[in-house]
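User: Okay, second chain of the day. Same drill as before: sequence in, structure tokens out.
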Amino acid sequence: MSATREMPDQRAVLAVVTRNRAPLFERYVLPSLQQALRDGVSVVVVDQSDGPETRALVDTLPGARYLTSGPGLSCGRNVAVASTTEPIVVFTDDDVSFPAGWVDGIVAAFDAEPGAGAVCGRATNGANELLPGTLPGVYRSPTTPFGLGSGLNMAFRRAALDATGPFDEDLGAGARYRAGEDTDMLYRVMREGWAVVCSDDITVVHNDWRSTRAQLRLSFSYGLGAGAQTAKHVAGRDARAGAIAVDEVGRHLVWLVRKLAMLVAKEVALQALFLAGLAVGFVRRRRELPAGDQARIPRDDGRRGVDEAARPATGSETGGGVV
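Assistant: Same drill. Structure tokens below.
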């Protein structure tokens, strides 16, 4: 008898962290989670909300695990990792929609590259336009982590997370530096010797709901996180991280000049705010970490979120992000 392929729920767990965004959760990711559960995928939702609205939505997902944690995207992701055992941990956000078979594609990408510690897919917007990203391929250190992947469509081999350590809880939405937990983890995974697989075949829809003002604030936050993660590694005497950041600054400056010449005001503002955030994040965190100090990344202490227990599937089933 030939061996059968392992079911997705035996190979991977899908984790969503959310905070006070029940309407977005319900509109975008909830229908996709319903389909994933029907397909046998293990699902964990880490809720950091102040009210009960998101919990009520997760209650409509028989078989999903409901966890709670303190604030911060990195904190929630660390709780999801510590509370599960599957060999592959898949992350997405509460304002994302994904197709049936998405997790299968991620598992297949890991199978095709045994040395991969992470797999990153792409995203489209609501108009089905592919958002900026990295060309398909297998990437290793000293590849820049910036633009390599995003936490809305990213997965890690548990062995790589065990070797690298948890997400930096000073980085990411809801934390002091508001972004950068995903690129920081990718950088650290590659530094440990693992590869990162990027694929255009593993796509999700990142639904555009932010106003122009919110997008500008987010661009500053992206820079803030990039600067903070760079300062952390430079303080740990990692000169390569500094060189990568210098290249990233140059890339954004070139893009800013091009958009300035084209009089595209919004793009100019986005690039300028990213660069400003990067400078602020670098200076602020560099002052916190004298040269040679190790980054203040919490180690795995066996911490787990409050688990509200998986609800067994019964008959028909009905139907993250952090700010």
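The chain has two domains: 11-209, 213-288.

User: Thanks, on to the next one.
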